[in-house]
Amino acid sequence: MKENPLDLLMNPRSIAVVGAGNNPMKMGTMQALNILKDGFQGAFYPIHPREKEVLGCRAYPSVSDLPDPPDLAMLIVPTASAVELLEEFGRLGTPRAIIISAGFKETGEEGAQLEKKLQETARKYGIRFLGPNCMGVLNSQVSLNMTVIRMADGPGMLGMATQSGTYVTQTLAYLRKKGIRFSKAVSVGNEADLNIVDALEYLGQDEQTRAIGLYIEGIREGRRFIEAAQKITPHKPVLAQYVGGSAAGARAGRSHTGSMAGPDYLYEGVFKQAGIIRVHSIEDIYEHGWTLAAQPLPRGKRVGVVTNSGGPGTAIAHTCNEGGMEVPPFSEGLQERIREHLPPQGSSTNPVDLTFHLDVRALSTGIPELIMQSGEVDAVALHGAMSRGFMKEIYPHLRELLGGVPFEELFERFRQDLSDTVSLPFKYDIPLVVSSFFEDDNYAEAYRKNNVPVFDVPEKAARALLALYRYKTIREREKTLPPELPVPSSEAERLIEEALARGQCSLDEYDSKRVLAAYGIPLAPERRVQALEEAVEAAEEMGFPVVLKGCSPDIAHKSERGLIKLGLKNRSEVQGAYFEIAEAAGEEIPVLVSEMVRGERELLAGVTRFPGFGPCVLFGLGGVFTEALGDFTIRAAPLSRSEAEEMLADVRGRALLEGFRGLPPADREELARILQNLGALSLLHPRVAEIDLNPIILSGSRPVVVDALVVLEREAEAGGGRT
Amino acid sequence: MKENPLDLLMNPRSIAVVGAGNNPMKMGTMQALNILKDGFQGAFYPIHPREKEVLGCRAYPSVSDLPDPPDLAMLIVPTASAVELLEEFGRLGTPRAIIISAGFKETGEEGAQLEKKLQETARKYGIRFLGPNCMGVLNSQVSLNMTVIRMADGPGMLGMATQSGTYVTQTLAYLRKKGIRFSKAVSVGNEADLNIVDALEYLGQDEQTRAIGLYIEGIREGRRFIEAAQKITPHKPVLAQYVGGSAAGARAGRSHTGSMAGPDYLYEGVFKQAGIIRVHSIEDIYEHGWTLAAQPLPRGKRVGVVTNSGGPGTAIAHTCNEGGMEVPPFSEGLQERIREHLPPQGSSTNPVDLTFHLDVRALSTGIPELIMQSGEVDAVALHGAMSRGFMKEIYPHLRELLGGVPFEELFERFRQDLSDTVSLPFKYDIPLVVSSFFEDDNYAEAYRKNNVPVFDVPEKAARALLALYRYKTIREREKTLPPELPVPSSEAERLIEEALARGQCSLDEYDSKRVLAAYGIPLAPERRVQALEEAVEAAEEMGFPVVLKGCSPDIAHKSERGLIKLGLKNRSEVQGAYFEIAEAAGEEIPVLVSEMVRGERELLAGVTRFPGFGPCVLFGLGGVFTEALGDFTIRAAPLSRSEAEEMLADVRGRALLEGFRGLPPADREELARILQNLGALSLLHPRVAEIDLNPIILSGSRPVVVDALVVLEREAEAGGGRT
Questions:
Q1: Looking at this predicted complex, what is its ipTM?
Q2: Which residues pair with B634 in a beta bridge?
């Protein structure tokens, strides 16, 4: 295991805090109080210019007065003093810091300058730090809570790394109510030093953490993020919400943490590539994350549903079905055993419906256990287990009739030991999710305490099962490593260098194709000619029909400008086309003579670079699919074979690649190879800014690139991506 | 206003209940208690064989002992006794009933027979009834609650009609916590008499009801449902969840209320046609329904976001953006006024971020009011207003520091009058939605009490705004009435009758097209010929190239069987094709000679019948779009012009109909006319079971039907739809 700078930061033997005092309404005081009161066992050094004691601990007038260098310095101070204080801790030899103070990059140029100074100071002393503009961390394993709000009870299993501090502070009471407990949580703030990738790696290695949630406004180290996640997701689920991909989201994120966002489709593709489950609300991070952390994985897609009410049962069944799981009818034998627990109007098929019936024991335990034992399901969803919550609702009207017996006394008569109920999923290693409209109920409470998630509406229970099932498929997906990059082609590099030297922004079509050919991309046979006779000769050699295209680096939209002539069937048509092209171009330009590739299916592929992610490979079904439907997918280079194949399966119109309407299935291996090679090419030639292969025609099953464009980056850059 | 049988049922002057007693754990007793204790002012007659008094009211030994016929009879009795009791109430002259008892159609054939007897008995005496297998009704206007759980406080604004009783009982406590209050709620159960359409019509006319939520497992009177909803949705929002469209949902629904489900796409289309907002969870029915009932509508799509935390602000902005609303940056002037309320590290653009800052007054009131006054937004979303909830969280750790002051005393020091805060949306007629992680907070409480919806996570607040915006667009959509049906074509009817007389299941292509032609559907010029010379003559008359097709009612998949010959350019090609068709067919069959229609875009249209909905018109972009992407849409006939036009806009590849890739825009008027005429034709000829126009080729902008099939219904049926 790699050492992670967060190891020490999350487990300091001693913490010095600047900005805490005895004024209870100050943020620093609240944070210090949480450190002290939530159970941290290490040393705690408040630094305060005037107070002798802070929160009952001896206070030190300045950093230099500290007895020995603390492992961790925490700064909750005015923006202007942060740099100076970090310097002092650096001189003392403190290796880690958390800078809570805001007012840096997120406020504009001046703040950005200050943030740079923080970075310089930290680098000078080898300090690794979180923030600025963050809310601190939580480590439930050592009862360390540096946030503003007190921690949930006991150690948890969900790890959280977030670019919004709120999601590890304001939500703590919300989470406690749901029984969701963090193992470790990290608010990364502006990420001037340690960032969300460091936090992800840390949580990935942390044994206590069973699932990881990420709130993301923008990732700087994209490629590193993917690699880190790819190491984690085969054995630990990761969920992420990304909100930076819309105009408003990007602007809001920038003003929040100054983070650099990318388009939504980039993150959509990257999450898939990394095996990350994407969610669209913080609720799903928490609830699906907790379900993944707390429940066993299903071994298949069969769900058993048990309920005391048809509506929720139907809604769960429908939601599971829509999301790709099944709710199969139970065998007659199982139904017979279930019917022993049912009233006559109940239903024993799947969903099992007890109808309005107060035998909660059968609903919560007897029937679910029968189902789990049967071997007929891989997961169970249960709606309606309720006792105290329901009684409390009806009690006020019943009190009189019950002779005025106090509620608690009444309830005691009905109270049951629920230990076997709540242990079912762990006993049978089959996941169980529960929904109940009664939040304040002894069943709900017992489930929550015992790591069985309880949802407030039935559809959410179903969606949590779908998240479990989704992760099962992620775990099972084929994993291949990206192959070694090939030897760079010196011809390709020469063509690029020469074009740059001539001041070109892109290669012309002919040279673009020569670069692609150097990496084994399949092209239509083609010759570049400079004169009419040459064109005719080339066409005759090639065999009719042929295509003629005007070729020049300055020419875009060849088709609209009349520079492409298709299906030329003989000498005279070639001659006519040659003159028409010269006329349309306004001068005699080089012309490409190509074989006419026929096929009913068009595809496209390409490369674009994104800051932090380097070159990313794009694949789509060409023509209307891409233009009218936006049906394309993207992954960061380099691509392994399985990643490239996943791209082919990741477009909505994927049926087109199969034996559609009597056409032969596409050569998927060759298609995957094209995508892999596009990625390799872009990594090997950093001056390639964009590649556009459009269309690639499926000639029978064989993909052939018919038109291609390589766009160049005018300014050189190091390595494989702009970071 | 039409009289609705539910008027009296929801407002009875007297109720007789059979099945209530003095045993508090019986369902009937609980329901009777709610009637008595939740404030119903009418007469209440319990019927009980032994007890003299039930719940303090004089009990009657049998129905015939009642002093006068009650307006409403409520039966919570064993299945077997329901019919007899209904008969007794009928004899007495009781006009309305609610049959809570289960065990009818939902349990199988025997139950279905009993249910039929209920219907016969009711019909005999003119009783209109709800159920069986339902949970009763709620009418908050007259404090009448017949369900099992006590009612929320005070009259509400959300009307609910549901095929699952749970959603008006088990959820009452859940709703109370959220501040959501029903105006009226109806559990329709098995719908043996009154059904969800009656309930919808009733709620549509009810003045107290400001928005309507529907939970649906299957609709029997589909066409009536659409018409009822179309009358309501232009002035009152309707939301619906449909769960019967998946295999598991359909089975679960059938075993729940015996309801007949249809495919998901049918309801998707029908909801759009009716102006109903579709939701996918009961939470959204309640929360979006309540927001629509309680808040003003936005006048445009501009959202202002105010928060004390960047993450939730960014998430709200992103969610609004993705859903089609905007979060525009504020003008410099407005930002300047906002900055007066902000700490230095805050952000005054949109979203406004106060950062962690305890000036809740600025967050909740000062800044939102500035924004509402500015004219720069149409809606406001607010995250993080919190006082008591937050203080309660930090208090335990602070207590000591605060000199042990009790929490309530501490809180009183900070308590503020929130009346101006909560009245903002109504003062400015601009919707306000709030999210807060602190459910138990004085702000949340005050908002809820004053009909400002509070959500537990920020994304939900954003999605509720999107529901408001969605309804605004529904209100504004163009409404046209379906035109009068044309005079039925006697030729079409003759062709259909003759084919049926010959025992055909469908018309051959030629006759199919003659039927279509009779309703003005544009077809490619075509002749049916019986001999080679005729074929050649027809082709020469028409002009080459032509198409030859074998024509017989028994022939499907003409293309795969080699019965279609395209692009025949001269006499000899026609001759060759003619022989090839005869050979492929195994005999000389009639042949169609058609003009070769050219175009790069294929569409399809058709008709299918669904039980209860009658003929439904389908439209899609043909070929791969429909087959590989399932990109089609459906509406029930007859279609108004605007409904037909909405179908054209309701396919994902709609850009194809516009000036795509230099092609001329499709003639939308003609396309809409085709869809309208398909609907009219099917209504006029009930023996037409299905129509399939595939492909319709866009020749330039003009749609031309190239292949067509009319499938016939062997058994006659009355009217326009199977019901």
A1: 0.95
A2: B618
Interchain pair B437, A652: CB under 8 A: no
Neighbours of B34 (CB within 10 A): 25
Tokens 């049967």 belong to which residue? A374
Instruction: Name every chain A residue with its beta carbon within 8 A of the beta carbon of B283.
Output: 456-457, 459-460
How would you classify residue B200: left for phi > 0, otherwise alpha for psi between -120 and 50, otherwise beta?
alpha
Largest CA distance in chain A: 111
CB contact under 8 A, B22 and A149: no
Tell me what pLDDT residue B557 has.
66
| Chain B nearest CA to A458, separation (Å) | 8
Asked if the model's pLDDT at residue A87 lies above 50, the reply is: yes
Contacts of B353 in chain A (CB under 8 A): 255-256
Please state the length of chain B. 723
Distance CA B70, CA B153 (A): 27
Fold of A525-596: Dna Ligase; domain 1 (3.30.1490)
Q: Is the peptide bond before A545 cis (omega within 30 degrees of 0)?
A: yes
pLDDT number for residue B633: 96
Query: Which chain A residue has the Cα nearest residue B306?
Result: A252
Q: Is the CB of residue B252 less than 8 Å from the CB of residue A310?
A: yes
Min distance A2 CA to chain B CA atoms (Å) = 30
CA distance B466 to chain A (A): 15
pLDDT greater than 70 at residue A716: no
- Quick check: B217 and A314 CB within 8 A? yes
B5-292: CATH class: alpha beta
Mean of pLDDT values over B369-398: 94
Name all contacts of B201-205 with Cβ < 8 Å and 24+ positions apart. Answer: B201/B2, B201/B4, B201/B228, B201/B232, B202/B4, B202/B6, B202/B7, B202/B10, B203/B159, B203/B160, B203/B161, B203/B232, B204/B228, B204/B231, B204/B232, B204/B236, B204/B238, B205/B1, B205/B2, B205/B4
Position of tokens 């009217």? B719
pLDDT classification of A480: cutoffs 50, 70, 90: confident
Q: Which CATH superfamily is domain B525-595 in?
A: ATP-grasp fold, A domain (3.30.1490.20)
Q: How confident is the model at residue B323 (pLDDT cuts 50, 70, 90)?
A: very high
Q: Are strands B546-550 and A238-242 parallel, antiparallel or unpaired?
A: unpaired
Kindly indicate whether the domain formed by B601-712 is annotated with CATH number 3.30.470.20.
yes
Residue numbers in A near B411 (CB within 8 A): none
User: Do the beta carbons of residue A44 and residue A36 sit within 8 Å?
Assistant: yes
pLDDT for position B720: 40
Domain ranges of chain A: 5-292, 295-476, 482-522+598-723, 525-596
CATH superfamily of A295-476: Succinyl-CoA synthetase domains (3.40.50.261)
H or E, element range at B217: none
pLDDT exceeds 90 at position A61: yes
pLDDT at A717 over 60: no
How high is the mean pLDDT of chain A?
A: 93
State the helix-helix crossing angle for B388-398 and A27-37, rounded to 10 degrees: 50
Task: Compute the average pLDDT of residues A333-337.
Answer: 97
Distance, in Å, from the CA atom of B86 to the CA atom of B83, rounded to the nearest integer, reads 5
Structural tokens at position B38: 């939740």
For the record, the structure tokens of B489 come out as: 């074509």
- Asked: is A482-522+598-723 a CATH 3.30.470.20 domain? The reply is yes
Q: How many residues does chain A have?
A: 723
Q: Is this prediction's pTM over 0.90?
A: yes
Summarize chain A as % helix, strand, coil (round to 5): 40, 20, 40
Same fold, B5-292 and B295-476: yes
Shortest Cα–Cα distance, A147 to chain B (Å): 11
Over the range A427-448, which residues count as b (16 or more CB within 10 Å of their CB) and which as e?
ebebbbbbbbbbbebbbbbbbb
Chain A residues with CB inside 8 Å of B402's CB?
A: 24
